[in-house]
Amino acid sequence: MDCSHVFEFKFKRLIVVFTLFSAFLLVSLGANAQVDTAHHAENTHEETAKEKKFDIGKFALHHISDSHSWHVIGDTYIGLPVMLYANGKLVTFNSADFNHDDDAKVVVEKNGQRFVKMHEKIYLASASANEHGQYVELDEKHHAKNARPLDLSLTKNACTLLLSVIVLLAVFLNVAKGYRKNKGKSPKGLQSWMEPIILFVRDDIAKPNLGHKYERFMPYLLTVFFFIWFNNMLGLVPFLPGGANLTGNIAVTMVLALATFFITVFNGNKYYWKHIFMPDVPWWMYIVMVPVELFGIFTKPIALMIRLFANITAGHILVLSLICLVFVFNSLYIAPVSIAFAVFIGAIELLVAFIQAFIFTILSALFIGMAVEEHH
Amino acid sequence: MITGSIAAIGAGLAAIGAGLGIGRIGGSAMDGIARQPEAASKIQTAMLIAAAFVEAVALFAVVVALMGNG
């Protein structure tokens, strides 16, 4: 049977390339889900005896949030540098000094100042421990009341950010070199993997939305597309080089959305601003139109920010909750079902990782296109 | 006795809304592709964008439900 028609559309061709690449990631996800389950089974067995109830929400939120140390496997963690600005002094130490305590029980003393870590937040330690052995004062909701230093630490997310920058640079410097070397010839190696995707961004995202001015915005669109895509994929790898939920962090998506916001505002031409402040409507409509249009400038990037954040976070929570089913039912026989579902959702997440990068880029291009469009 | 959070009902309602929305988008895209198979790639792109808008609203609701739960 001739299957060549499948490759006819650029988008489909891209999906095929993408699926082949992701097959490798999928296998590792499946393998690791089992390891993870076995490991947590031991931990939670002790906990269930104590608390009798397994809190999925707490477990999932703990796993998707940022952390001061990097979990490898079992009880092995990598300490990350902690940088604090407290009482006018910069204090640095290794997060391994906390001994992976997250309950304010271990005090780190540095430069005459004492710190404790509770729920991944660093506090100035109290002089003496409370009845639970914690060096913090708690309010009635069990939140710490102690003062917090300014935390500039290189956390797990910050490290992943640097890692993804290295990966992106390595890939794209290689592709750029290949492009120079094979000019006029067919692409080679990594170049033949990236070139169709770069062309996809140019032909299907930039050109239809930006018209003939697309070249000016191509660097931004390509950067944002590959940054989001690579980080979504890194977030899906459950073990060491991945494991951080970078694009599921609202601060990261906010910076990305701010970039789109500033590019839109600074490139807006007179027609764009006229459309906002002096639309072609009767003057008494201005009372409604102008505030709504002004509001629209800000809601667009905010929607971009929340869309990416919520999609990636929801995906991670889904996978974690499915794995948690084992502990909710407290039975090993549910494990095959929950792992099968987790792998299935993991496969969907690979697609979502691509689609979200695509959506963010195409909407950015759409908004920029609206701002630079000439009057006709 | 039924225990649980009312936030779960909110998340469920959001899922119903998103399901109706994405179902309509998907169905219409199918119709479009069946009528004009040569325009499939363009229809797919437009479909994904529209689906993302619908999905985003549902996800806002899920985030609010999560916050209300927490």
Strand order of the largest sheet of chain A: 4-3-8
* Helix/strand structural class of chain B: mainly alpha
Order of helices and strands of chain A: HHEEEEEEEEHHHHHHH
Level-1 CATH class name of chain B: Mainly Alpha
**What coarse outline of chain B follows from CA principal-axis ratios?**
elongated
Order of helices and strands of chain B: HH
Written description of the protein model:
- The complex is a heterodimer of chains A (376) and B (70).
- Chain A contains nine helices and eight strands.
- Chain A is mostly helical.
- Chain A folds into two domains: 77-154, no CATH class; 157-372, no CATH class.
- In chain A, the strands form three sheets. Chain A has a three-stranded antiparallel β-sheet, with no helix packed on it. In chain A, strands 5-6-7 form a three-stranded antiparallel β-sheet, with no helix packed on it.
- The longest helix of chain A is centred in the C-terminal third of the chain and has 44 residues, at 286-329.
- Chain B has 70 residues and is mainly α.
- In chain B, helix 1 packs antiparallel against helix 2.
- The longest helix of chain B is centred in the N-terminal third of the chain and has 30 residues, at 6-35.
- Chain B is elongated.
- The two termini of chain B are 22 Å apart.
- Chains A and B meet through helix 1, helix 8 and helix 9 of A and helix 2 of B.
